[in-house]
Amino acid sequence: MTGIDLAGKTALITGATGQLGRVMARTLAEYGANIIVHYRGNEAKASELIHEIQAQGRPCMSVQADITDYQAVVTMKEKVIAEMGQVDIVVANAVIQYEWTSILDQPLEDYPSQFESCVMQSVHLAKAFVPSMIERRSGRMIGINTECSMQNFPGQSAYTAGKRGMDGIYRVLAKEIGEYQITVNQVAPGWTISERDRENNSEENEAYSRNVPLKRRGTDQDIANAVAFLASDMASFITGAYIPVNGGNVMPSI
């Protein structure tokens, strides 16, 4: 049995300058993939990440785009193809950040913002990148969902609504393009330890961890490992899956 080998593959990670995205980019590069670092506003972090990945010996480029704007996504695709060729792996990781509160207090504009960055991002990426995958009868579409989609806790309404809508898009897409040997899956992180936590010494949270069967929070590397697995040939017969990476904090039922 072979391990994870992404040599010769090109991966696009949206929101790659974010806390989880940057670890996904580094990890896919470590497994041999050429990397496209998407960002919306953090050009400095994108440049830093490019230099880091290129130092690993992997081809890498950055591209700026508003993933809620379809024409911007099409323009991004054209830039990527011109410099790096066709994309084999698309990881939809970007999401608009906002302050969580109750439904009664949540500003109305936060709901369409989550719809645009979760649902419409997924649609835009599919329309832009799937047609060439169909021609090649090969490809990986990977969405970053959340355990919140199953929790439905107070304060999560806009985020949960957006991610549950994203789940619907991915499940339907998996059925629509499966015959072309393109897999469509989702990774659903729990409350994950990231570089920000390490810098702030905030890795531990007993109130959260006591309800997790593994009694701890996962790490950004745990999420990136799941993405790498789904991107690889080892997961070639897995599609339509929603995979929690949260130590068992939520468990999809049958």
TrEMBL record:
Pfam families: adh_short_C2 (PF13561). Signal peptide: none annotated. One of its GO terms (molecular function) is oxidoreductase activity. GO terms for biological process: bile acid metabolic process. The lineage of its organism: Bacteria, Bacillati, Bacillota, Bacilli, Bacillales. Gene3D superfamilies: NAD(P)-binding Rossmann-like Domain. InterPro entries: NAD(P)-bd_dom_sf, SDR_fam. It comes from Paenibacillus pini JCM 16418. The keyword Oxidoreductase applies. The keyword Repeat does not apply. Keywords: Oxidoreductase. Belongs to the short-chain dehydrogenases/reductases (SDR) family. It comes from the Bacteria. This is 3-oxoacyl-[acyl-carrier protein] reductase.
